[in-house]
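Figure 6 in text form: structure in, sequence out.
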């Protein structure tokens, strides 16, 4: 099954998007580089957001990233996930950012394969605040394999 079909089966919305203030995804050579995509969930991990809620918020961000990649490239097929940067709105003593960003990585593994094109480099960082109070913000880099 193709990556695009897997994404659709998992409920990823690939409908066209209205352009935003900044480019949500831009092609440079054989790379697709996304802007940060924020979760709908608001709040601070370690205060009013649980790891489980954050995991789902990171998955939400991954779905938004994939929509932007699809809208720029026209397909999710023929891509390799290179790098994910996950930003987690965190209380000062919260140290489970990596578990939150697993929500994004797990979805990408499910679509592109953990042992294949979905096996990516990643950073998961805690931040004192994120735009709009979002619980999670994620950006990614994809390689066009063609």
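Output sequence:
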């Amino acid at each position: 099954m193709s990556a695009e079909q897997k994404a659709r089966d998992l409920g990823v919305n690939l409908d066209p998007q209205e352009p935003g203030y900044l480019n949500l995804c831009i092609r440079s050579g054989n790379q697709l580089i996304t802007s940060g995509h924020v979760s709908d969930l608001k709040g601070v991990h370690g205060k009013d957001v649980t790891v489980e809620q954050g995991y789902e918020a990171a998955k939400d961000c991954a779905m938004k990233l994939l929509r932007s990649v699809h809208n720029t490239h026209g397909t999710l097929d023929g891509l390799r996930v290179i790098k994910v940067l996950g930003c987690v709105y965190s209380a000062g003593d919260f140290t489970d950012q990596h578990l939150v960003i697993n929500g994004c990585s797990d979805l990408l593994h499910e679509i592109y394969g953990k042992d294949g094109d979905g096996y990516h480099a990643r950073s998961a960082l805690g931040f004192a605040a994120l735009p709009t109070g979002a619980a999670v913000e994620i950006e990614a880099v994809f390689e066009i394999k063609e």
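Caption detail: The chain has a mean pLDDT of 97.
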